[in-house]
Protein 1
Amino acid sequence: MTGTIPLYQRDESLRSHITKVRSVRPVSALSDENKLLFKQATAQDLVVVTAETIFYAQGGGQPYDTGVMRGSTGAEFRVTAVRNAVDGGEILHLGSFAGLTQFVDGEEAVEQVVDDARRTLHSRVHTAGHLVALAVRHMADSMPAPVVELGASHAPESAFVNFEGTIDGSCKDVVQRKVDEFVAAALPVKVYFWTEEELRARCATVPQAVVMPSDGGLVRAVDIEGAGAYPCGGTHVRDTGLVGRVTVKKISRSKGNSRVSYSIE
């Protein structure tokens, strides 16, 4: 069986889509590795796999989407978590049916509907994280030692970007001003698919955690025009003005690394 096509990677604006059900199975039928993805699952929860999906699967520091799938026979499946399977390329939708009717495996058409407010919030927070990282990179040339992005959390309740290297707490206001400039400029945010060579030439940095396709395929990148690009599989807003107010909360340091925490309003 082929993997699930993640439609949100090509079109982030989709909030509804009709696709086909491939399987419906209890969490207990998953492999042990995939069961660990859903530690919050209850005995009543099921996992639905579809041919394509517009539901974002948790990863890259961004939380998963939630929403519903409605079948042609009247069944409604409430999606409460979404994860990439450990292998095989399937995207697993965890949830439960609203009533007794369930989807028909392998043949029923279903309409996927993503929780728009949740997706939009996560997209704003994710774009804000890129702005924070780019603001730090903008002032990196004037810093006594280099800093390199390590990773990030784009969860609204705990958003931050981690760096290898020391960023002094006095830099907070400088980072804030640059982020404010980026937001005010309403810079376009574009998605591209680049070769590894293009990625390394065009991105502000390529973190070590980025896995390059072994077959030389393309890698998804998000370019904030006029600010910089990063390899990224997450969802974003169309331009930086849609991020809204970003607050750089603090810069903390530990064992040679730095964390820039932020929030949005």
Protein 2
Amino acid sequence: MKTIVLTLITLIIMMPSLERNDNVYKYELNSIDGKNISLEQFKGDVLLIVNTASECGFTGQYAGLQELHESYSEKGLRVLGFPANNFGGQEPGTDEEIAQFCELNFGVTFQLFSKISVKGEDQHPLFKHLTNAENPDFTGEIGWNFEKFLIDRNGNLLRRFNTRVAPTDEELIESIELALI
């Protein structure tokens, strides 16, 4: 009996550390200007993680993402953009070129990261985690640019939205607003 009680106590004590290891906060990436950023710095915020591209039919979604950033950042939403060249070579530029494009064409002020791979053999571990994490929507490989992952204030995946769901889509906005409560 004593062994069972000690085992249960040990498991209860370990639960917070298990949660920490299964969320997005364990990942470190480079910002688009080359600074190392730990996602731990966003602890307590709601995150919208998006794989982006500058030469895609959905590139106009940058404007909607910027709109979300401007409307909800004071309430704790952080939009995080991850340029990726995985789909049809639609993000061929350097980090500097991508940053300049986003600023000049869409006035992007939300956090952009250095170009990474979001699928395939060289998939970044963050996106491996996100594409396999349980959620009420779907799991599996990213299908195209501008897929969106909504992360709660504890760093866990709440919802996943495909490319065709615009940043201004009512369902996405409702999900963000619920997460911010």
Protein 3
Amino acid sequence: MIAGKLRELKIGFEAGLVKFRNDLPSLIMIHGAGGSSIVWKAQTHLLKSRCNTFALDLPGHGKTAGSGHTEISEYAQWLTDILADVFDEQPYLMGHSMGGAIVQTAALSNHELAKGIILVGTGPRLQVAPMFLDGLKNDFEKVVETLIGYAYAPDAEESLVREGIKLMKKAGAKVVHGDFSACNRFDLRTEVDQIDTPCLILCGEQDKLTPPALSIKLNQLIKNSTLKVLPSAGHMVMIENYRMLNEYVSEFLSTTDFSLNKTGFKQ
């Protein structure tokens, strides 16, 4: 049913369950700049006993048509519209990096949008160094390789880095530059404290792109939030330390959706 609606809207996605279960909450995942739904594979498949998992491709990314957006607010409006068109009940929203900025913006615009939000490797502001913004226009492939090199912890498997480079290059220079430009203009430091939705904040201990200090700041600003810093992970924490991240997500679902018991299943 949900999958069918997403296909009708020509939205690319990854889902865990073949058939939607009305007795479980839904978790919608939003990827970061130059990414796609594939980065959430360890969540869509391994959390499917806890919730209906849907990782969406943003416009111009993965299998979703379009040219991408250049403002976080535009992506947030797109997400809000999709939720209204496709989902009958409040879902949980989980966003990584730029996806976290999108989730913050959407949650601020509608406090009833989600049961809870999960912010992964993000912050209340996502400033991008001018050398990266200029480089994405003038030397795209080289700068992508540098960025993805920073995205993983030093001891990450080389195959993960190669796949990350391949994924971002596939998005193309125009979309990726637009994404990072949107991130650079994103700044909710004076507004994010208005979020009152239950919030879980997750980050990799070795994240160089969105350092833990940004997650700590989010935790200080969002009153109803919990922070977890995950070891052995950089910016791509949902890939690098997916087991621990999934445990924290499961715990968050169990403690904020009161129709679930402590094992994560409906009573």
Protein 4
Amino acid sequence: MTQHAREAITGGTAWPARYTYVPALRVGNLVFISGTTGTDDDNRIVAPGDIVEQTRQIFRKFERLLKAAGGSCQDIVQTVDYITTTENYKATAAVRREFFKGAQPTSTGVLVAGLLRDGAAIEISAVAVLEG
């Protein structure tokens, strides 16, 4: 089996070595982004209870990660949304349009009983394909 080069992407943020995963991983021209919640740089949930603002923060983090890899949110081809409530979930579509700018990815939404991160209303993972 061929071993592909793997590059961890942290987007310039400090990433504790004790974690058993990375925020994003580049393999060839693919970037796999771990499930991400709407936390700020101090690892606090932004806008507790506000799924729209948490979604916006998640996509800001995706943009930072993808920029570090030479891409942008427009390179995302798949997302999976894990949500704890359907209240205002439809409003997150406007946030997606802000970041995707017409380059919509495939997407799956999953309603869950809870997320590991207290206060998180949504967690999103993604896959992006970069040029060359």
